[in-house]
Design goal:
Helix content is about 75%, strand content about 0%. It has about 140 residues and is mainly α. α1 packs antiparallel against α2, α5 (about 65-75) runs antiparallel to α6 and α6 (about 80-95) packs parallel to α8 (about 110-139).
C-alpha cells in the first residue's frame, strides 16, 4: 500500500509531496518509509518538504538512521527553520548521540535554532539523568 505513495513522492511537485507525506505518516514504522522521509529531509530542495520530514521523523524513536538524518539537517541545512525543527525532533527521538550536535546548535546564529536546541538538550539530559537514577535503584 505505502509503496505506491513512496513512488509518487519521487516525482511529485513540492505541494503534492507534502500531502503525500501526510498520507504516508501512518506507515512511518516501515523501514522503507523511514528511509524515504530521511532522504527527503537531507536532499529535497523545498524547505517546506524538509520541515514536514522533521515532523514525521519525530514519531520514530531510537532509529539510528533517523537520528543521523536529523543531526545532518541540524548541522548542514541552510534554512534556520529546518535546523530548528530538526533540533526539536532530536529532543523527541534523540539518543545520547544527539547531545553533542545539540550542544553545538545552542550557538547557532539563529535564535529559533538556539531555542529549540536548548530545549531539546534539556529533555535529553533530563532523560539521561532519570535513566541513571532508575539503573541505580535497580542495582
Amino acid at each position: 500500500m505505502y509503496e505506491q505513495l513512496l513512488k509518487r513522492l519521487d516525482s511529485a511537485p513540492s505541494a503534492e509531496k507534502i500531502k503525500l507525506m501526510d498520507e504516508v505518516k501512518k506507515y512511518i514504522s516501515e523501514p522503507a518509509v523511514v528511509d524515504k522521509i530521511c532522504t527527503l529531509l537531507v536532499e529535497d530542495e523545498d524547505r517546506f518538504v524538509r520541515i514536514k520530514a522533521t515532523e514525521l521523523l519525530e514519531e520514530v524513536n531510537g532509529n539510528e538512521r533517523v537520528v543521523s538524518a536529523l543531526i545532518k539537517a541540524l548541522r548542514e541545512d541552510e534554512d534556520a527553520f529546518v535546523r530548528g525543527f530538526s533540533a526539536k525532533a532530536l529532543g523527541r527521538v534523540g539518543t545520547p548521540a544527539a547531545i553533542q550536535p545539540l550542544e553545538e546548535a545552542v550557538n547557532d546564529p539563529d535564535g529559533f535554532v538556539r531555542d529549540f536546541a536548548a530545549g531539546s538538550l534539556k529533555v535529553l539530559q533530563m532523560r539521561a539523568r532519570l535513566l541513571g537514577m532508575i539503573k541505580k535503584k535497580d542495582s
